[in-house]
Each structure stands twice: as structure tokens, then as C-alpha cells.
């Protein structure tokens, strides 16, 4: 292996520490804690773990956690009513509805109901527009976490060739916008891209967010490139009945060619919740009209 391993778990721990300091200062200045409301509909096991971890980490950082767990058969109207209640609650600075939602609910409609200034997931179309036009808003947590890791690793990203594999609203598209804002030359690749290995081979930065286990091979990677693996895929383990997590990148081969690479688990994943807490403390300051140097977090 030649690549250095980008330790997202350690970076996320450092970020949470900085947020903890800001959260105490916010409480002293505002006379209340910053508050994050997380809504879970249904019993998806992975979502239950993520929501539990969000609650625990929110409290550990000195913020207030409001958890709302609704049964899978909750009507869309009831969920929208809860979101409206949270929009109106001054103790709630950030609102997150855990995805995926049950099939009978329209995710876009639910997201559109969240007040954009409490949309700490950055999924509301107003925040999508703000990101695209360079206005202050909220940026989706996973791609913002990827950019934080990239800047920590490389310093300036200006002028670098970046390939984002995947064009989802949650990761691929905002990732491309963020890299453009960092003055990268960005290519967004997807299932219809012709000669993907050749496209990837030109990139100084590769962000893989396709949801296909170990799809990106070492021989696709330009020597010395920085590889960010957003994939979290559970596959069968070596032992019968056991599973293991792998990314969208074939770590074994890619790590012999890349200059730096994120592992799965322990790379991008832990950044998602840490950045959510970052967005929440930012929302709290904005909502309370208290100044904060957001670029320093
Ligand atoms: N409303 C939202 N829903 C979802 C989001 C989101 O950002 N907002 N992202 C994902 C799930 N997610 C947080 O919600 C999340 C995913 C992964 C991790 C993480 O720490 N992963 C670990 C491995 C965890 C494991 O063992 O399974 C890692 O990669 O090291 C945290 C949060 C979808 N829904």
C-alpha cells in the first residue's frame, strides 16, 4: 500500500470538539442551547442507528436533541404537520427528516415543508439554489464533509481536475457544486458515461458516490490522486452469515496507486453527522442573530 489513509473518524472527532466549544459559547450568549430536531418514520434498522448516533452526538456537543419517532404507517399529512410545528418552535434551530422515508410519502414534498433556514441537511430547493449561486445557506452534510477532508489533505484545490462518480441530489450534484466553488475543473460521471475508467484516470480528485460495491478499480486511478469513497455497501463476509462494509472503490487495488484514500468504514461516514452538528450550530447563531466566523469551523 502506498496511499496515506484519510482518517475521517479522527477528523470528525476534532470537528465535534470545536462545535462543543461553540455550543457552550452560544448557550452563554443566547441563554438557551442550540437545538436539533430529528424525525424518523418507520423502523429501518440502519436509519435507527444513524438517528440514535445523531441524538447522542448532539447531546455530547452540548446541544439539545429533540427526537421524533413515528410509526411507518404515519400519514404524510401528519408528518407535514409535525414539520410545521418544528418550523414554528423557537427552541429548534435545525430540522432533519431521516431518509429514506416510507414509500407512501413524497420526500420532495416533505423536504419542501422544512423552513430553509432550519434545513440543516441542505436538501431544500432554496438551499440547493443558494449553493449553486454562491449564496450563504446550508450545504448537504456528506459532500461538505468530503470537501473538508480534501482541503485538510491537499490545502488549496484550485485548478485540480476532479471527477464525481454519481449524480444524486444528496451527494453527487452538491459535491460537484462545492468543487466548482473551490475552483476545480469538475466532471460528473454516471451510468451513461462512456469509458469511465479513462475519465477517472484523468482526475487528481476522485469522489465515488454510486452505491456499487468496489466498482472503481486501482487501474482506473491516476498515480498519486486523492480518492474519496462515499459508498457504504454491506456485502457478504468471508464467514457464512457475516457481512462487512465496503465502499464504491476497490480499496485493496486503489490504495496501491492513490496518493491518499478514505477507508470504509471510518472515512466519509463519520463526517456526515459531525457536519450536521456544524450546520446546526451555524443555524443557531443565524437564528439568534449572534455573529459567528463560519469559515473557521
Ligand atoms: N436526512 C438524511 N438522511 C440520510 C443522510 C443524511 O445526510 N440526511 N445520510 C445517510 C445516512 N447517514 C446519516 O443520516 C449516515 C450514514 C453513514 C454514517 C457512518 O458513520 N457510517 C460509518 C459506518 C456505519 C456502519 O457501520 O453501518 C462509516 O462509514 O464509517 C453516518 C450517517 C442516508 N440518510
Domains, number = 2
Low-pLDDT parts are none
Task: Provide the residue-averaged pLDDT.
Answer: 97
Evaluate the radius of gyration: 19 Å
Q: Indicate the CATH architecture of the largest domain.
A: 3-Layer(aba) Sandwich
In DSSP terms (H or I, runs of 4 or more residues), the helix count works out at 10
InterPro entries: Aminoacid_DH-like_N_sf, NAD(P)-bd_dom_sf, THF_DH/CycHdrlase, THF_DH/CycHdrlase_cat_dom, THF_DH/CycHdrlase_CS, THF_DH/CycHdrlase_NAD-bd_dom
Keywords: Amino-acid biosynthesis, Histidine biosynthesis, Hydrolase, Methionine biosynthesis, Multifunctional enzyme, NADP, One-carbon metabolism, Oxidoreductase, Purine biosynthesis
Protein name: Bifunctional protein FolD
Family: Belongs to the tetrahydrofolate dehydrogenase/cyclohydrolase family.
What does this structure look like?
The structure is a single chain. Helix 7 links the parallel strand 5 and strand 6. A six-stranded parallel β-sheet has the order 1-11-8-7-5-6. A three-stranded parallel β-sheet has the order 3-2-4, sandwiched between helices. The protein has a two-stranded antiparallel ribbon with strand order 9-10. The model has no long low-confidence stretch (mean pLDDT 97). The protein contains ten helices and eleven strands. The site of the ligand Nc1nc2c(c(=O)[nH]1)N[C@@H](CN(C=O)c1ccc(C(=O)N[C@@H](CCC(=O)O)C(=O)O)cc1)CN2 has 17 residues, from strand 4, helix 6 and helix 10. Belongs to the tetrahydrofolate dehydrogenase/cyclohydrolase family. Homodimer.
